[in-house]
Amino acid sequence: MTDILxxxxxxxxxxIVTAINCTETAEKARVIHNTSKSATNALARVLAMGVFxxxxxxxxxxxxxxxxxxxxxxxxxxVCGDCGSKVRCRMDNPDCxxxxxxxxxxxxxxxxxxxxxxxxxxxxEPYNGTVKLVNGTVDTDFAYYFTVxxxxxxxxxxxxxxxxxxxxxxxxxxxVQPMPNCPPEIVETLVDVVRNFKDMDEIVATHTPTxxxxxxxxxxxxxxxxxxxxxxxxxxxxxxxxxxxxxxGKKDATEIIEQNGVIEFNCDFCHRKQIFTKEDVEKxxxxxxxxxxxxxxx
Length: 298
Ligand SMILES: [Zn+2]
Hints:
By secondary structure, the chain is an alpha+beta fold. It has two domains: 229 residues, Hsp33 domain (3-Layer(bab) Sandwich), CATH 3.55.30.10; 60 residues, CBS domain Like (Alpha-Beta Complex), CATH 3.90.1280. 39% of the residues lie in helices and 26% in strands. Helix 1 packs across helix 2. The radius of gyration is 22 Å and the shape is globular.
């Protein structure tokens, strides 16, 4: 089944519910980073939040970065997102609790740290919001972030179900956000519904986003909006690596070549390798020089 994010207006637009299935995206993250069961379980939840937050991006240059540094066994988790929920991620210790059954999310993430969200809309200053982690469970931490940093009180439940071999059987989330004009009694009702998502791991495994919304929110005058199709996509390219190479400066680049024979870049998000030989490096700096001279003559 393809990953999908569905949104619906509730109570004549007074609130909005989002249901996400990002099973394939989470499974791809697991394969790329070779995560342990516990790491997959935590990472997939943060990934689901990245899917949610980048779904609304319109411009191709809009960039989302989510950093969770809670001091847990998994180390820092970073999720990046582009418009249309095209996400990628990395974590410091993908093999934490390796060989064990799934440990609680907060043991992987930790609760002594921060959640930082950077939204770059290509303007002068990117939006930057940081909150202290509440308990390192993802759901509560992101709900707190939305309430405090974006003034959007939110109810969030993420769910992940793994197979015996550690692969992802299901991953997803449900997020309810009342609009500013939403009456308190409707907020109360919606928060109650999400509170009942006790076994969200089971719910994501047995529902599609559409059936989830129908079953739990269908009686709230629900009006579906256009869906989004999340995917794990890395934006790294040889051209971007060339720019990093140029920014290193010719002296340092030449030194590495002399020591190692080649310069090798390994993308943190997809583990794609870019190898530059001595000839490549010489050519890149020649071209960079030409460009500089061109702009000097203008
Ligand atoms: Zn990459």
